[in-house]
Protein: Bifunctional protein FolD
Organism: Acidiphilium rubrum
Amino acid sequence: MTARIIDGKAIAAALRETIATRIAAQPYRPGLAVILVGEDAASTVYVRNKDRAAKAAGLNASTIRLPAETSQASLLATIQSLNDDPDIDGILVQLPLPPHIATDAIIRAIDPAKDVDGFHPDNVAALALGAPSLVPCTPSGVMHLLHAAGTNISGARAVVLGRSNIVGRPMAALLLAADATTTIAHSRTANLPDECRRADILIAAVGRANMVTADWINPGATIIDVGINRTPDGTLTGDVDFAAALPTAGAITPVPGGVGPMTIACLLDNTLLAAGRRRGSKAGGSSSGAIPAMKSIAGTFGSSAPEPR
Ligand SMILES: NC(=O)C1=CN([C@@H]2O[C@H](COP(=O)(O)OP(=O)(O)OC[C@H]3O[C@@H](n4cnc5c(N)ncnc54)[C@H](OP(=O)(O)O)[C@@H]3O)[C@@H](O)[C@H]2O)C=CC1
Ligand SMILES: Nc1nc(=O)c2c([nH]1)NC[C@@H]1CN(c3ccc(C(=O)N[C@@H](CCC(=O)O)C(=O)O)cc3)C=[N+]21
């Protein structure tokens, strides 16, 4: 058997279409400001992709490029002016920041209602408490992919490799909210291959090229590869050895063309959601009405204590 390939590029394109249609139905153009401090090569690529996708969807997108030596005070002042700007609905500060800037102070300074990354403590708490508001884009994109692939989440064993605030932790919170039996594995996990072999759904978000090999995979499992690693010859590869996994997995995302494009589509979606809440919206404003994956996830958030089954 060969794994089904989950086409993130196509699924993201369809999501962007839906978002564009919804934006066109609004009396305003949602505003997104992306701040890039310094010249990090990878970030520059992502920022360019975001800018292009945002404009194509009808957002009013701008990128604020600041020099690497920008002070924390000056970055905070930039954020304050965006918080105060009525035309701006979404603010994203590209990470990582230069080492002289305290990342958590920057994230806390963003108006939680404009925090389209979902990294502000208020939004993190909302997700942890089971009442998600603005949800981090990459984990949200993964949920869309699982939905599009027809993966059964409720009751399944999900293993998340990685526990960063950007990917691993919010990913596990969403899977738990969707009733998966959820394990978070990391660099101190005693036996990673054993943990992974138990997974019906395996999410790899580590940042190590081809770390997950065929013998780590439960036959038939759905594998979502979040990792983006540049190999010495310049090609992009995920955390999963894709070719080796193909004969064992049930379904798998490629890199590139898997989670990456979904992250950007979900950023547009969060911006539309934030704009709808701030300005009121003809079409309801919330993405959860438009997107089945979030609708079904939202359903699981409906009661704090799910019905026993
Ligand atoms: N496709 C997309 O849209 C996005 C892709 N990415 C990619 O996803 C990957 C992860 O990103 P991010 O979460 O920010 O990375 P971080 O470096 O912040 O976190 C990596 C996590 O992996 C764990 N880890 C590291 N090495 C090992 C190991 N040998 N065995 C087990 N666990 C390990 C770490 O464990 P510990 O906590 O114990 O140190 C940590 O929790 C990267 O490749 C990144 O480029 C990131 C964001 C978006
Ligand atoms: N505040 C903040 N929010 C983020 O969401 C954030 C961040 N900082 N810093 C960096 C990571 C990484 N990230 C990606 C976005 C898109 C692709 C993407 O579009 N990837 C494509 C193309 C990749 C390429 O060609 O380089 C793909 O995988 O097919 C990848 C990675 C968002 N991140």
About this structure: The mean pLDDT is 92. The pocket of 5,10-Methenyltetrahydrofolate (ligand 2) is lined by residues 43, 45-46, 49, 92-95, 117, 137-138, 228, 236, 255-257, 260-261, 263-264 (CB under 6 Å).
